[in-house]
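Researcher: Final request for today, and then I'll write up notes for the group meeting. The sequence and the SMILES for nicotinamide-adenine-dinucleotide follow.
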Amino acid sequence: MKDVLILTGAGQIGMAIARRTGYGKKIVVGDRKKENALAVCTILNEAGFDAVAVETDISSRQSILALLDTAQSCGEVSMLVNAAGVSPSQASIETILRVDLYGTAVLLEETGKIIREGGTGVTISSQSGHRMPALGAEADELLAMTPTEELLGLDLLQPENIRDTLHAYQLAKRCNVKRVMAEAVRWGNRKARINSISPGIVVTPLAMDEFNGPRGDFYKNMFAACPAGRPGTADEIANVAELLMSDRGAFITGSDFLIDGGATASYFYGPLRPEK
Ligand SMILES: NC(=O)c1ccc[n+]([C@@H]2O[C@H](COP(=O)([O-])OP(=O)(O)OC[C@H]3O[C@@H](n4cnc5c(N)ncnc54)[C@H](O)[C@@H]3O)[C@@H](O)[C@H]2O)c1
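Model: Predicted protein-nicotinamide-adenine-dinucleotide complex:
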């Protein structure tokens, strides 16, 4: 039996990372849209990989457990790439919290129970979370440590405390980073590592929905006025994921990596600074 890489989210970022890290492994691809999972499996299999598609909704613990069962029937799970998510222009506040925040937390928790000794994982957060002001030590700890089934009951995640879908997305992505810190401790008990990556604007179907959504001009200006002067590509996110998931990343766990062409730097201290 082969080692198994679980990929959740059969999108551009997830596929780019799987191509760098999944050779020689069984790649189990879970996506809410089975057609997306199948399309990625076709591309991977036609390029010499060994991938199988499973319809998976990460907002459901049951669905995650079924995915992990399938993965374990193929071999030992040595890698997790979580690139499943919905963006502010794609979904409601409730769905964003359920998928991006709760779903990611459950996936990290459940995979942490079965990941092979020495295994590694990355989950995709976002630069959007980095633009949100600090929440304070107490809120951070709640996001990091609250049992998964109680997370969506937290006061700071109630609808009256959330302005719009962008705010919900930012809270979800902040939570991802905090969960990764807490999970790194648990994963460490199995000598496994977990990190997060916070991409800036990366051209994918999800980013296209943002360009065409209510904040389209904001995002187009963001990449035009950031130090890189362009949006990123999924392959540039995979460059860092590959390092994190290889032995060269052996001392890196519980960390978040902002890869945004300098957009966040420009947002705080440069031309993208919002008017006060
Ligand atoms: N593209 C960007 O500019 C950008 C920037 C920052 C962060 N991100 C994050 O990167 C991750 C990957 O997005 P992408 O840009 O590759 O988008 P993408 O649209 O190419 O892929 C996202 C995939 O996630 C799947 N998905 C959505 N909800 C799901 C669910 N409940 N269960 C399982 N799968 C689900 C979608 O069907 C889709 O196939 C997301 O978490 C996103 O928030 C993207």
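Model: The longest strand covers residues 193-199. The mean pLDDT is 96.
Researcher: Thanks, that's everything.
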